[in-house]
């Protein structure tokens, strides 16, 4: 006979699956997939090669659609998931990494572990399940963010071991700490890390808006070139805006990009 498994959120609350909308197929044309794909191509445009790290279920859903949509990036992009990267040196020569999400387990499980380890260590005080939102900086950067954790400092350290430890393991797979070569790691997550060389902290949507505009501007420049080659005439700026949906200033940039290409 088949046993139904409970599904919990990170707080250990059992979810009613009847209340959750389920979808069939892959995410290859969803907003989630497009956000992932845009960020990966953003990193690939700035680095020779990249390791993509995310949750296993997201890797299973998105890796093949990404390879189908971007076949020219096949050799430059490698994929991995939390929980399967510790000690793996296959990615040591990659030049960058982009890490999506936070590797969490239900906090009721962490609470049970904390009480068990506390008892083994001879700590007899009562360990509650109370939680709060802790503010922490992004490494050495002045900006920070809140993340949920336990009030109890012992249980809080177990959260850090699970979350920060796994993220650190993913980061170290490209070996940035044992080379004089400059390598880049892009953290797409809300959980502040202890990275010592955080150069910038920006909202994800802001970076992606700029990148998508850059891509559309490049598409506009190619449209201008193609029109000139086909007709011998340069399209008007309003025509370019109508086709590419660019703002006036961005359409002007597309014309400047064409200078020297004709």
List keywords for this structure.
alpha/beta; 262 residues; single chain; two-stranded antiparallel sheet
Protein architecture, described:
By secondary structure, the chain is α/β, with parallel strands linked by helices. The protein is built from seven helices and six strands. The protein has a four-stranded parallel beta sheet with strand order 2-1-3-6, sandwiched between helices. The chain is elongated, with a radius of gyration of 23 Å. The N and C termini lie far apart (70 Å). The relative contact order is 0.11. Residues 22-27 have low confidence and may be disordered.
The spatial strand order of the largest sheet comes to 2-1-3-6
Number of DSSP strands? 6
The helix/strand series, from N terminus to C terminus, equals HEHEEHEEHEHHH
For the biggest sheet, the summary is:
4 strands, parallel
Rg (C-alpha, Å): 23 Å
Helical segment count: 7
- Termini separation comes to 70 Å
How much of the sequence lies in strands comes to 5-15%
Structural class by helix and strand composition: alpha/beta
Tell me the helix content: 40-55%
- Unreliable stretches covering 5 or more consecutive residues: 22-27
If you average the pLDDT, what whole number results? 85
Shape: elongated
């Amino acid at each position: 006979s088949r046993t139904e498994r409970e599904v919990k959120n990170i707080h250990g609350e059992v979810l009613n699956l009847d209340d959750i909308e389920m979808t069939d197929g892959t995410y290859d044309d969803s907003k989630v997939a497009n956000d992932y794909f845009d960020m990966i191509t953003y990193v690939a445009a700035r680095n020779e090669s990249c390791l993509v790290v995310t949750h296993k279920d997201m890797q299973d859903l998105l890796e093949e659609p990404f390879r189908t949509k971007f076949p020219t990036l096949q050799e430059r992009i490698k994929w991995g998931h939390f929980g399967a990267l510790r000690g793996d040196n296959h990615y040591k020569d990659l030049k960058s990494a982009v890490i999506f999400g936070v590797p969490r387990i239900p906090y009721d499980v962490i609470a049970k572990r904390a009480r068990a380890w506390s008892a083994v260590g001879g700590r007899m005080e009562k360990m509650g399940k109370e939680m709060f939102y802790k503010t922490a900086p992004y490494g050495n950067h002045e900006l920070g963010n809140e993340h949920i954790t336990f009030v109890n400092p012992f249980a809080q350290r177990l959260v850090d071991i699970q979350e920060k430890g796994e993220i650190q393991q993913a980061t170290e797979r490209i070996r940035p700490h044992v080379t004089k070569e400059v390598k880049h790691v892009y953290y797409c997550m809300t959980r502040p890390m202890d990275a010592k060389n955080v150069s910038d902290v920006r909202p994800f949507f802001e970076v992606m808006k700029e990148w998508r505009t850059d891509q559309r501007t490049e598409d506009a420049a190619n449209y201008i070139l193609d029109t000139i080659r086909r007709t011998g005439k340069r399209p008007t700026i309003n025509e370019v805006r109508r086709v590419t949906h660019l703002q006036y200033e961005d359409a002007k940039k597309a014309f400047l990009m064409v200078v020297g290409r004709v």
